[in-house]
């Protein structure tokens, strides 16, 4: 059940955007990290509920090698089940992750209209996550982005390990901005800056955004993707909003992690984000009580409570 205090009091803060687009990653980033595979029907219902709760960008799954991420090996079965949702919810986008031309062929077969390629800012993670070096990952993505753009498909670029890397330590901002700019140059419309292991703090966020600005990449082309390992995700998000970012990635109920970066925990929880944005009077289109109820439902399916503070506060009877 949802408690009576379903919405925060609204008190705006100057210098923030009036609207934020939430890029919901629970069904992909969240479920890719579950120790067991969530049944297809549960994924289907989860995505439907997320759309019903007002989310309009819902990353659905990945067309990666099924042996690398078996949890999402049912992408071919899932996409047809949710293909009708954009008709029911106008404006709904259902992006999928695609690492290479084989993945793109699979996505094209299913008429996906939005894809995302995912690069690493560090050599160590590029090797672990993609079996490629820093330059080789770009060689792998270049034909994917070119063919997708030609087919009228929107391409998002992800950049992982933007702040810290478990094998290399702190990652220099110049290195991150340089790899990110390269990814954008391939033809990605937006770049999502991933704090894969959640070590970043607000000053680092500001420094990175300034480094991109110096390379001619404004906040309007950037999104932020924070994992909440050290509890910094919401503070980092506020820092990014203050510098003009208006697209924020988060996962319902705080599901998530990355199977190839063991120290990565869940993403910033969408409910925690929406509680803050609602409180600041920033529009998201999300129905917070409906979303919290969805995450409580998913937590029941997964057999453990949601790590989201907002979900727990909103769904625990007093
Ligand atoms: P590889 O082993 O180097 O692949 O893996 P390959 O190119 O050498 O091909 C080997 C075989 O795999 C071939 O088959 C290919 O056809 C097949 P064979 O000829 O031997 O029979 N293959 C595929 N089959 C199906 N779908 C495909 C595919 N590609 C090749 N797409 C590869 C390279 C990139 C495929 C692999 O490393 C991979 O799948 N990696 C994905 C890892 C992943 O999904 N990680 C999590 C997502 S990233 C993330 O979570 C971070 C993010 O959230 C942001 C953040 O938090 O920082 C986005
Ligand atoms: Mg992630």
List keywords for this structure.
binds 3-hydroxy-3-methylglutaryl-coenzyme A; 318 residues; eight-stranded parallel β-sheet; TIM Barrel; binds magnesium ion; alpha/beta; 10 strands
Helix-strand blueprint:
Elements: E1 21-24, H1 26-30, H2 40-52, E2 61-62, H3 75-82, H4 85-88, E3 96-97, H5 101-109, E4 114-120, H6 123-130, H7 134-150, E5 154-160, E6 164-165, E7 169-170, H8 173-185, E8 190-195, H9 202-214, E9 222-226, H10 233-242, E10 247-250, H11 270-279, H12 288-302, H13 309-315
Parallel strand pairs: 1-10, 2-3, 3-4, 4-5, 5-8, 8-9, 9-10
Antiparallel strand pairs: 6-7
Helix pairs in contact: 2-3, 2-12, 8-9, 9-10, 12-13
Order of helices and strands: EHHEHHEHEHHEEEHEHEHEHHH
Distance between the termini: 11 Å
What is the CATH third-level topology name? TIM Barrel
Q: What's the architecture, going by CATH?
A: Alpha-Beta Barrel
CATH level-four homologous superfamily name: Aldolase class I
Mean pLDDT value? 95
Number of strands: 10
Q: What proportion strand? A: 5-15%
What can be said about the biggest beta sheet? 8 strands, parallel
Low-confidence stretches: none
The coarse overall form would be globular
Number of structural domains: 1
